[in-house]
Each structure stands twice: as structure tokens, then as C-alpha cells.
User: Fold this.
Amino acid sequence: GSLEGTLTAKSTLLAGTLEAEAALRGSDVTTGTAEIDKIIGDAALIDLTVRRSEDGLFLDSLNVTTDQFSAGAEGQASDATLNLQLAANLRDLSVLAPGIAGPLDLNGTVSAASGPLTVDIGLTGPQGLSAEVSGELDRDLKSADLTADGNLDLSILSVILEPRKLNGKLGFDLSLDGPIVPTSLSGNLTLSDGAFEDQSLEIALGSLAAEVEFEGDRVDLDASGISEPDGQLELSAELDFLKEDPSQFLPYAVDYLVTAKDEGLVSRMARLPSKQVFDLQLAGRAAADTVSADVLLKSNGSEKLKGKAGLVTNDSDRTARDFSVD
Assistant:
């Protein structure tokens, strides 16, 4: 590939002003990363116009244009003040995700005076994709007061999961208030009208519904679905984050309780002579170096397995594992 550029500038020394324009054009440019090269295509153009006056530094325009992508920013940027308008467009998402056609658009603003960054950014795309993030973000990126909400049609992931099929509507309404750690998160994720199919495993699930609720140091999950042709699935989980320990590889330990009920799916996959109802309960703690669980498994109400399981991580070699069941 090739690159060529131009630069023009005009300055008034006594007034301390500056006006500058720069342009960079490329053809047949490759980065070695297939996804980026698909976006760049055969040609790329970058245009930049800036000026400096007694009021500060102004970004009059920054535009990046390729065969498939365009992005722009304009506004004021200085040590004291930031006020930028942002826009970006991917002409067709199928360039990155074959089979998912349509444009992907981002628009928003980022601003700040002497305090944190204020952001208001929206994203829209094909197949019901939408998201909006707004609020404040500390400049050191250590804490935030942000909200995020939107929707996603899970069929957009089927391209990645092929030959498996996934459908459903995923909605999210989340807030992050405080240090950027899991316990600062609140809100919920919801799944409705979901379906999953994997013919190789003879799995066909329909009417999938789920809700995940985040509330500080606790996360609750409830999910259910139909196992075709005549089964039922239920799943619930409770996670409690314990005191943070920054010295550990993972800063949190988690107490958990997971219960699952299956009617039909396991029986069919295991080719059992008759449909059975399985109930599974796992309770324990997961930390940086250990995972423990009390296990209880029932079939048609009769206890089949009861015991303890442990997983230990060697601090000197985190690939080493010691697993035991009582």
C-alpha cells in the first residue's frame, strides 16, 4: 500500500494564533488484522483542521473515511475545557458479521470543564440494536456515575454460533455509581422470547426467559424455558460478593447458590428409556485460589448424589489444579 499527506499552517506569533490543516491519504493499506482491513477497504482518508486562539485549542474537524467506515469529531479541546461532538458510521455491519446487514451508527458528546468527563453517547444498528450511555466518568477512569440502557436481538449472535441458532430479545438497564468494580453495578438484564437450537446435541429450547438483577454486592438470576417437545427447564442463582482483597488475583470471593430443574432434556440427550426429572443444587464459595461446592442431585425425587467438590489453584502455577469429590 501507499500513504501520502499534506500539511498547511498559518500562525500569528504576536497574537499567539495558529490555524493548521492536515490530510493523509492511503491506498491498498493493510494492517495485518483481517477485521480492520475489511473496514479500510481499498482507500482511506484522514482530514484534520485545528486552530488555536486566546480562547484555547479548537478541533474544527477530524474526519476519517474509508470504503466502509466514516467517523468525525469537532469541538474544543484544551487542558481546561473539553467539548467534543462525535459521530461514526459503519455502512454495513455484514462486513464484520456476514448475514447481518444494515448500518451501525454512533453519535454523542463528550465534555468537561475542571471536573469529570460528561458523556452522552447513543448507538443504533440492525436487528433492533440500540444502546445509550450517559453520565460522568472520572478522568483517571477509576470511578463513574453512568447509566446504560438498550436492546439487542440475539439473532445477531447466530452468525458467530453457527451452525447453532439463537434468538431472543435482550434488554438492559444498568447503572454504575462509584469505583469501577462489580459491586458498584445496579440494574437488570432481561431476556424474552428466546430460543436456542443445536442439532448436533439434539437440543431445542424455546420460550426462554431470564432476568438478571444487580444490586451492589448481590446478583440474582432466574431463567426458564421449554425443552422441545415436552420438557421444562428452570434455573436460579444467587451470588453474594464478599469483601474485596486487592492482593488476590481475583479481587472478590463469591458465595453462590445455584439450583436447576430439568424435565426431559437430559433424559433425551442420555437416551434414557423414560423421561426423568432432575434436580441439582450447588452451594459454596468461589475465590481466587479455591472453589468449593456442596452438591446435591436428585432424580424423580430420589437422591442420586450428595457430597462436596473442591477446586484448588496453586499460587505459584495457576495452571495446576487439584480436584476432589467426597
Observations:
- The radius of gyration is 27 Å.
- Residues 316-326 have pLDDT under 50 and may be disordered.
